[in-house]
Amino acid sequence: ATGGNYRMQRKAPPKHHRLKTKDLTGVPWRFALRSQDAGWYLRSDIIWHKGNPMPESVTDRPSKTHEYIFLLTKSKKYYYNAGAVEEPTLERSTNEGPCAMQFRNRRSVWKINIKPVKEAHFATYPERIPELCIKAGCKEGGTVLDPFFGSGTTGRVAERLGRKWIGIEMNPEYVKIAKQRTSQINIFAPK
């Protein structure tokens, strides 16, 4: 069965002792809260608003058009380069002249369209997402950790921005794709 027929014929997901049928699992927030429990600081919840989301065939709730991004740190003081991720804003003209481009601190809702990756799985995110996160939170020459590495988008962007990366991925098919999309071999190899 394909398309709409598949959706009608598939079996319901397995029951979980804490979740009711049709209950959101809340994995992103559960991860963030467990990180706090483990000693991390949850500094910001960012909404990635997808301007062109995948369509959903739901009729009993709104279609989801966003994902969460969390700014987590290991200490109260941490590296954050706000200037590297400022966003433009137009200042209204005054009697002194026309509008001028100004910049402000990046806001917590990022409207960034999805961009498909031909060799990758359906849940890839655009390179702009890790680009902003890496520029803000990792110095040049530093190391980026992605615990949900998928097709390697974060590693690819880290390389382009002059950072090393560590990617964790359980699916061997995605690991193959990530290896094709990135060039770093081993950050722990002796020089």
Q: Can you give a write-up of this model?
A:
- The protein is of the alpha/beta class.
- 24% of the residues lie in helices and 20% in strands.
- Residues 1-8 have low confidence and may be disordered.
- What is the helical fraction, as a range of percent? 10-25%
Biggest sheet, strands in spatial order?
2-1-5
Largest sheet: 3 strands, mixed
The helix count comes to: 5
Distance between the termini: 53 Å
Structural class: alpha/beta
SS elements, strand count:
7
Spell the H/E element sequence. HHEEEEEHEHEH
Uncertain runs are 1-8
Shape: globular
- The rounded Rg comes to 20 Å
What is the oligomer described by this structure?
single chain
Give the strand content. 15-25%
Mean pLDDT over all positions? 86
Concise description?
This protein has 191 residues and is α/β, with parallel strands linked by helices. It has helices at 3-9, 27-37, 128-137, 153-160, 172-181, and strands spanning 41-49, 66-73, 87-91, 100-104, 109-111, 143-146, 164-167. Helices cover 24% and strands 20% of the residues.
